Amino acid sequence: SGKVELNLEENLPMFMADPVHMKNIISNLIDNAIKYTKQKPRLNITTKGMGNLLEIKIKDNGIGISPENQKNIFEKFYRVPTGNVHDVKGFGLGLNYVNTIIENMGGTINVSSELEKGTVFTLKIPFNHE
């Protein structure tokens, strides 16, 4: 019952990537956006070319991530503390995986978030990478 808005730039250069890893990256970020939203999820996914980089942004209307926790979310096994009970199951591996694959592609991932407002993950990946 959520909404996904796609803003995909047309006529981008050819982008070569492992389809399994790219699917896992995008799926992980979308899955987290849905899991960490108290209301009907609203996602905005944007792609655009920036010189020799492909930029992918995934914006949500979720619960957000505090500045203190943003520093650690890409660490292996890190989960944002929620007291004794996690109402969302996981092992703290997803964002570490996403970060590792993006870095291996010569790219970067950044997070911008505000509590109770939502989160934006921005991936920048070279069009020509190994």
Overview of the structural elements:
- The chain has helices spanning 19-35, 67-70, 94-104; strands at residues 3-8, 42-50, 53-59, 108-114, 118-126.
- The chain is of the alpha+beta class and 130 residues long.
- Helix content is 25%, strand content 29%.
- It starts with a strand and ends with a strand.
- The protein contains three helices and five strands.
- 18% of the residues are buried.
Short structural summary:
The chain has helices spanning 19-35, 67-70, 94-104, and strands at 3-8, 42-50, 53-59, 108-114, 118-126. The protein has 3 helices and 5 strands, in the order E-H-E-E-H-H-E-E. The mean pLDDT is 90.
Fold blueprint:
Layout: E1 3-8, H1 19-35, E2 42-50, E3 53-59, H2 67-70, H3 94-104, E4 108-114, E5 118-126
Give the ordered list of helices and strands: EHEEHHEE
How many E-type strands? 5
Report the mean per-residue pLDDT as an integer: 90
Largest sheet strand order: 1-2-3-5-4
Residue share in helices?
A: 10-25%
The biggest sheet amounts to: 5 strands, mixed
Portion in beta strands: 25-35%
**Could you name the ranges where pLDDT drops below 50 across 5 or more consecutive residues?**
none
> Strand pairing plus helix content: what structural class?
alpha+beta
Distance between the termini: 39 Å
Supply the key terms.
130 residues; alpha+beta; five-stranded mixed beta sheet; 3 helices
